C-alpha cells in the first residue's frame, strides 16, 4: 500500500480538498488554523465524511463497500454478464486486480489517515464540541478498520491469529505497517470505538457519528467476536438511551423514501442529497437493482431463495423492499401463470387459463394440487408423464430469462428514483444482535423476545417456543433468518453466514451459475470468502502478504 500517497491525499483532503468537496451535509469552510479551532476541526472532519461519499456520479467508498458486501450473498441474482469487476464479487471469482476492491482499500486508508491527522494534532479538553469532533474521527477510523478486516481477513470465529489488514495509526510517511492479525485489528477497533464513545457527548443527528453510533457498532463487533455479554450490554445502551424508536408497521412500507433525519430508527447513515450527490441516477447502487421512471439498469434482482423466505408470510411489510415486474394484457390486467425452476437453475413460465389449464410447449395440461394449507403444492403432468411442480403467479418481465424482482431498498429517497443514504447502524439491528447473542447463550426466551419485536413490527406471526419453528430449524437458524429478512441489502448477510460457519447456498437462478465450475455452495472455509489484497498495493508495499 502506498501510504505516502494516502498521507499526502489525506492531508490535502483535510487542508484543501475539503473546501472543494463542499457537499451537504458535510460541507466545508476555510480555516487557516485548521485543527486548533472548532470550525477548522469541523472542516477536516467533514472532509473525512465526504471521502466516504465521493463526488456526484462517481463511485467511492460506500458504493464499493455495498457491492463487496452484498453481491456475494444469497440475496441477489444477476441477470447477465458484465465487464464491470463487480461481476467477480458476485460469482466468487475474485481477482487481485479488481479496481473496485482497490478503490475501496484506497478510500478506506485515505480516510483513516485523515482521521489520524486529527487524532494526532487536535487538542482534547478545549471544549465538548471539539472533543465531539475528535471522537467522530475515532469512530470513523474504527468503523473503517472493522469493515476492512472483514473484507480482507477471515472471520474472527475462524481464528484471531489469521492475517487481517495493516494498522495505519499515524500520518508518518515512513510508517508502512504489514498486515496485523485479525485479533490485533479487532483490538484496535474496540479501542477506537470506546475512545469515540467517551469523547462524543453531543448528538448532532443521525447523519454524524455519535456516542450511540459507537455503542451500536461495538455491539456488532462484540457479536462477531462471540463476546456475547458485551454485545448485549452495548445493544441495551442504545435501546435504553431513548433516542431511537422502531418505525411502525405502516411506516415500514414506505421507509425507503425517508431521509435519515426523518427516520427515528436510524442511528448513523451517510447522508446523500439530491442537489449535491445525485446526478442522473444510473450509476448509483440502486440503479443496478431497478429501473424507476426510466432511470437505472435494473439488472440485479432479489434472489429466488429470499423471495421464498419472505413469501412464507405474504403480509410481511418488508415485501415493500422489492417488487415483481408483471406483464399486462391489452386490458391492462396481469396475466395468470405458473412458473418453476428447471434443472439448469433457469426460470420457466407458462400461462394459466381459467385457473385450471397450464399452456406449456403449445400443449394444455391440467393444474393439480396435493397436500393442504401450508403444505399445498401445485403441479401438472406433462406429455412425457413427468410431474412438474410449479408455483402460481402472474407472467413477469424477464431479462435473459431471469425474472425481474426489482429491489427498491437502495432507491426512492424523497421521491428520487435512486437517491439513497446507506445505513451503517439502525435500531432493528440491536434487537437482532441481542437475539443472536441470547441464542448462542442458550437463552431461548430472550432470543425469541427480541426476534418477536422485529417480527411483530413487520406484521407477521411471532414465536412462542421452539415448537413453532419449521421442522429441522434450530434457534440460531431462526435468528439468522430474521437478520436476513430485516437487514437485507444493507451489507450484513455475507458476514452473518460465514462468521457463523454456515454455507452460502446459491442454488437459485442467476448468472453466478453460468459456465463450468460455478459455485453453487460456498463453504465458510473457502479461500474466496475474503477478497485478495489489491495487487497494486502489494506492488508498492511488498511486505503485504497476499491472501491464498
UniProtKB/TrEMBL annotation:
The record's keywords, sorted A to Z, are: Cell outer membrane, Membrane, Signal
Q: Does the keyword Signal apply?
A: yes
A GO CC term attached to the entry = cell outer membrane
Q: What is this protein called?
A: RagB/SusD family nutrient uptake outer membrane protein
Name the family the entry cites: Belongs to the SusD family.
Q: Where in the cell is it found?
A: Cell outer membrane
Domain SusD-like N-terminal, by residue range, is 96-223
Instruction: Give residue ranges for domain RagB/SusD.
Output: 264-548
- PROSITE patterns per the UniProt record, alphabetical: PROKAR_LIPOPROTEIN
**Pfam families associated with the record:** SusD-like_3 (PF14322), SusD_RagB (PF07980)
